[in-house]
Amino acid sequence: MTDYILTALRFSQILERNDQGRPTKEIKHRTGALITGLDELEAERLLAAGAIVSVDDVAPSDGNSVVEGVGSGEPAPASGTDANSTPSDPPADPLRRPRPTATQEKWAAYAKARGIDAEKVDAMTSKDDIIAAVDELDAQ
Hints:
Helix 2 packs parallel to helix 4 (about 125-140). Helix content is about 30%, strand content about 15%. Strands 4-1-5 form a three-stranded antiparallel β-sheet. Strands 2-3 form a two-stranded antiparallel sheet. It has four helices and five strands. The chain is elongated and about 55 Å long. A hairpin with a 5-residue loop joins strand 2 (about 10-15) and strand 3 (about 25-30). The chain is an alpha+beta fold. The chain has two domains: about 1-80, no CATH class; about 105-140.
């Protein structure tokens, strides 16, 4: 069996089920966790969804046996990642849109990161105005 690195936020690996089909033994994993013991079908499903990457596809860091990104809270780098990248490099993942219930400050930071003029965002008086500006940017 191949080992994998979790790139999704969370994954519950079911190890045993009772007679009713409910999980009785499971392991809860977080981003960057090393996952072992996946059956072939589940591994294929998670690979297709982009939730895991094979340990063989991840470059080791500084020649150590530890896989880069494991346990750091950061997703493990996918194959083709520049080996010379530093922790200060911005992540390659796209920005996550805040929840509608997020604070105005989070929406303002998101809007600025998306490229909306900072002065324009700071001049907006409500979260709804910021969300509308982001939606307008998405519509373009």
